[in-house]
Amino acid sequence: MAFSLPPWGWWPLAWIGLGLLALTLEGLGPRRRLLAGAAFGAGQFVVGLWWMKEFNAIGSVLVMALETSAMVGAAWAVSSRRSLLATPAALVLAESVRGHVPFGGLPMAGVALGQVGGPMGQAARVGGALLVLGLAAAAGCGLGAAVRRRWLSAAILLGIAVAGTVAGFVAPDGGDSARVVRMAVVQGGGRRGFRAVDSDPQGVFDAHVQASLSIRRPVDLVLWPEDVIDTDLPIAEAAEAKTLTALALRTGAPIVAGVVEDAGPKRFRNAAVVWSSDGQIVDRYDKVHRVPFGEYVPGRSLIEKVADLSVIPRDAVPGRGPGVVLGRLGVVISYEVYFADRARAAANAGGRVLLVPTNAASFKTSQVPTTEVAAARLRAIETGRDVAQAAPTGYGALIDHRGRVDARTTLGRRQVVRGVLHERTGRTLYSRTGDWPVLLLAALGLLSAWRSRPRRRRSPSP
Q1: Packing angle of the helix pair 57-77, 83-98 (nearest 10 deg)
Q2: What secondary structure letter does DSSP report for 317?
Q3: Which residue from 173, 270, 310, 407 lies 20 to 30 Å from 445 (Cα-Cα)?
């Protein structure tokens, strides 16, 4: 299961892993189902979230254990006599819980992030990442049923997997292209694997300025990454704003750049700020979904009494509303790309393309940058929008509305990626409905599996 996820992305392995889980759960009592779920969850999340150990060993163990508990819950909920039929539904419900709690959830290391590279990824435009997970589980359980020679169950499960996959290819994909946007995605490059408190803000800013000087007209939009401008002043008063004004005038195009600005002694704002082609600051979007224990500390006043919070000295001020700038550009900042509701809100509020300014420079390996690209691909398919992503050291990428990566930068290299995005005004089924239809089907499927358990026969009275 773990190696179906980024950065490996061997997506067929998920079908095998999920099928083996269902077969393992057959005939087990509640206690052993809990153990089986714990083993499976540890295999998925210890590997899938291994990057966390770079920041805090104890915290990473706690998070891995918490995420594993979702698989424990799913395994417990599966009727041992109907495990092949119940496992897909239980996994969908568990993934929904994992994506919402605690502190807004952690969808990273989810099955759909690996499946986006396979044929089932296209089903995201019908039912989002949860449907993609459900179809992968149905395929795996269907193969398991075939191994057990339970042909009716195999036919039902594999039929669901095939039908859902086909639906993804024929469903509306957010068509109705309005115009073409000639994009320039800027990556300043540099070293990787350092914490924010150890960074060189001026050096990061200068690197992106130098990279941007290579941009030649014609260009319609320039995207800088998250947090490449760090100022203790309001951005309009900062010296960096004048440099962006000059760059906008030079390129003749609007520039969207990531700005972190002070909002008091213990607070800051993380925003995507827009300079117009004539050099004026004309719009901004402040990040809504903050990173817990990264951009803010839940219950700080209590935790700081027992833990050193010097690495996270300030809390981000949350923004409000959908991420749309200039009335037509959807924005999801960094961590928000893992949450389908942020991308859906931007697209439904008028975003015709999606911009993802992010910052993954703190991670030594390619695991998180690759995962971010996979998440951006999912959001592209779900919303039917082309996506541009920019990161200080990578990956920057241009992704079409079907989740295909048209261009991607090299980690650590100073680079500008040029390409074309299409503004799109149509809506996918998932843009209209969200997750509730899939959740309803999963709940009904799990309930049906429980109700159809064979009853024990009572011994005849003497």
Answers
A1: 140
A2: P
A3: 173
Largest CA distance in the chain: 96
Predicted local distance difference test score (pLDDT) of residue 304? 83
Is the pTM here over 0.85, yes or no? yes
Buried b (16+ CB within 10 A) or exposed e, 321-347: ebbbbeeebbbbbbbbbbbbbbbbbbb
pLDDT on residue 196: 61
For residues 193-200, give the mean pLDDT: 70
Residues 6+ away with beta carbon under 8 Å from 373: 6, 389, 395, 397, 399, 405, 408
What's the rounded mean pLDDT across residues 44-50?
96
Q: Can you tell me the mean pLDDT for 174-202?
A: 85
Does some domain include residue 406?
A: yes
β-strand pairing of 324-325 with 329-331: antiparallel
Reported as a pLDDT band with limits 50, 70 and 90, residue 297 is very high
Label residue 199 left, alpha or beta by phi (over 0 means left) and psi (-120 to 50 means alpha): beta
CATH value at residue 341: 3.60.110.10
Domain that holds residue 22: 2-172+432-451
Strand 353-357 to strand 415-424: parallel, antiparallel, or no bridges (unpaired)? Answer: unpaired
